[in-house]
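INFO batch 0412 | record 1 of 1 | parsing
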Amino acid sequence: MIQPDGVRVKIPASTANLGPGFDTLGMALSLYAWIEMKEAEQTVFHLYGDEMQGIPRDKSNLLYQVAQQVFERAGVQVPELEISMYSDIPLTRGLGSSATAIVGALAAANALIGSPLSKAELFDMATGIEDHPDNVGASLYGGIITAIWDGVHAECIRFDPPEDLEVLVVVPDFELQTSEARKVLPDHISRKDAVYNVSRASFLIGALAGGRMDLIGKAMSDRLHQPYRAPLIQGMTRILEEAANHGALGVALSGAGPTLLALVDRHESRKNELEAFLLNTMRAEGINASAKWLLPDVEGVVEISGMPSRSFMDMVKGK
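INFO prediction complete | emitting tokens
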């Protein structure tokens, strides 16, 4: 049954890889997008915020295309939609903006028709669209996820992050397409580098799941992607090497970048020093950047119960 008043969902941003967990580890972050979806007589889009500029406002829009996949899989027809979206998540910066849109559209479309599809089915669909499970899994389930994908079916294990974990992201003012960041990766790696990453990814999962924040710094180094992507982001190598000296537990490229992410103990006394170090290192390379202090999100995508009488944007502003 189609919800006559439509539905609203809230979706967290995400960071992927966390250093060594290339295409397998993801964590949801307290930066959000909101989507409202209704059946309509004619398809129309209301896209709000600076991050929505340039997004298609016709049926080529990703939200519409993904929603139609849900309807087709569920065996229903909802050819015309009214879709509203607002996002605080910077586009193509390594914070899962595309995964957020995919997960949000899947969840909203599923809720609109009475939620016939399970989260596991939505996860498979999201991973198939995104082609890797880390960002979509984190935005869907919240918390930290470690995931596998065989090209057809995705599985993940989700766990809560340590209670005292805080996240600093430094977002450069330039975009970096994931496709471009993947082009610089080598086709082959040595056995030594493979073992290096497997050991550290395993160690990082154990440290995070066990609340051993003191071990995070030993686990977040990487040889699969960060050394090859560093030339695309001036200042990144210095930040990876020195951020721990300024209060970071560990630091990594967020997803494909260019955003850099530091994991921090919320009781750390040098948070201002760390933020200044990251921003000044970027600035010294001629890169303007903004800093955001975030928390891990533990809910994942959520449907906002009912359809409040206030408008979509009034709801967003009220947060």
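INFO post-check: The longest strand covers residues 25-39.
INFO record closed
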